[in-house]
Amino acid sequence: MARPQQGPRLLLAIVGALVALSYQTKKKSFIHVQELPVSDPFVVTTLDFVSKEFNKKSEDKYNFRIVRVLKAVQVLTNHLEYRLNLEMQRTVCPKAERNNCTFQEGELYKKIDCFFSVFAVPWFEKYKILTKNCTDG
Length: 137
What we know:
By secondary structure, the chain is of the alpha+beta class. It has a single domain (about 30-135), classed as Nuclear Transport Factor 2, Chain: A (Roll). The chain is built from 2 helices and 5 strands; from the N terminus they run αβαββββ. Strands 1-2-3-4-5 form a 5-stranded antiparallel sheet. It is elongated. It starts with 5 loop residues before the first helix and ends with a strand. One of its GO terms (molecular function) is cysteine-type endopeptidase inhibitor activity. Keywords: Disulfide bond, Glycoprotein, Protease inhibitor, Secreted, Signal, Thiol protease inhibitor.
């Protein structure tokens, strides 16, 4: 049989556990992190989105194209996110063109290393860049 003094302690412990549990559900918790091959269809569509968005927002008068994907990681938390490490290079194509663009050489050569974090709902083709960080390569 419980002593009368243990009742309030038990009640306090239950309330404390419920507060801690409700706080934890508000925080993001990693469910699954997986490195993916570049050939994965969802990675391909995400890379295409990133490339188009980068060129659309870039102040450079030439398009950039992805040269190499260093790493593609899928992170599943309370949403789906792709984290991409890329090498991009300036092409000879101005902003209006996108097809058959070769890379700049000589004085206009420019290579950049970029990290993108992209919120994705790939089966509905919905994407949003959460983080973009590019530096000269």
